[in-house]
């Protein structure tokens, strides 16, 4: 069934996630490249549950693990090239930060904000990830999708309903690649912009701790971090999971957290913000798998 990639069974996922938590995947497939992945998906039995993982950020895998097959694109699906003078082709496994630097080096502007997104393009496309006021789909012209039968489909931007941290219209399809439309700019200026953005990020976020990135979406007209801090929750912990002292919209794994600890802390934060402010916080992070 497997062409050239690696298939692992009952593989613990904690080492693949940025939170460093998560139970085992029934099957974990690491493809050799895009062609190999297409062949593998086409060979799966009908109805096989399929999950995708890049850098493992924005993802909480529950302690009971995942039934079905997890596709891990970390270090795979990494092709990226200049398609024409203002367009860049990038596969789903390329880290967003690499895309930002690649475009800047080419003298193309518009992708600098991607340097602040701690995931791959596949994840950024799925949730319309953003940073520093920029959003992924603002630079997406078209995408390449794959369905459960291994069929590859080309889709234009207008075929999706895109909003803040939300992309609708995916159905049973997953991202293989995207074509980005950028503008000609100044390479040195873009590189300096990226440097400034990263300095700002490092100063305000716990980038050296095991986190998933931002946990909650910002509610309209406000900031999740402000609300959480106003509830007095900075430093509040459940088990090994703690609300970051540096940025309240981050939950850190102090080294011994379980997925259950993190999920309980997420729910506690939501309850406190709802009780004190009457505002429902919705998660950015995707929760998958079964409880232990």
From TrEMBL:
Localisation per UniProt entry: Cytoplasm
Cited Gene3D superfamilies: 3.30.465.10, UDP-N-acetylenolpyruvoylglucosamine reductase, C-terminal domain, Uridine Diphospho-n-acetylenolpyruvylglucosamine Reductase, domain 2
FAD-binding PCMH-type domain ranges (all copies): 21-185
InterPro entries reported in the protein's UniProt record: FAD-bd_PCMH (IPR016166), FAD-bd_PCMH-like_sf (IPR036318), FAD-bd_PCMH_sub1 (IPR016167), FAD-bd_PCMH_sub2 (IPR016169), MurB (IPR003170), MurB_C (IPR011601), MurB_C_sf (IPR036635), Oxid_FAD_bind_N (IPR006094)
Keyword terms: Cell cycle, Cell division, Cell shape, Cell wall biogenesis/degradation, Cytoplasm, FAD, Flavoprotein, NADP, Oxidoreductase, Peptidoglycan synthesis
Pathways per UniProt: Cell wall biogenesis; peptidoglycan biosynthesis
Substrates-to-products reaction catalysed: UDP-N-acetyl-alpha-D-muramate + NADP(+) = UDP-N-acetyl-3-O-(1-carboxyvinyl)-alpha-D-glucosamine + NADPH + H(+)
Keyword Lyase: no
Class of the enzyme per the UniProt entry, highest EC level: oxidoreductase
Active site: 165, 214, 284
Main location: cytoplasm
PANTHER family: UDP-N-ACETYLENOLPYRUVOYLGLUCOSAMINE REDUCTASE
Protein role: Cell wall formation.
Family: Belongs to the MurB family.
Name used for this protein in its record: UDP-N-acetylenolpyruvoylglucosamine reductase
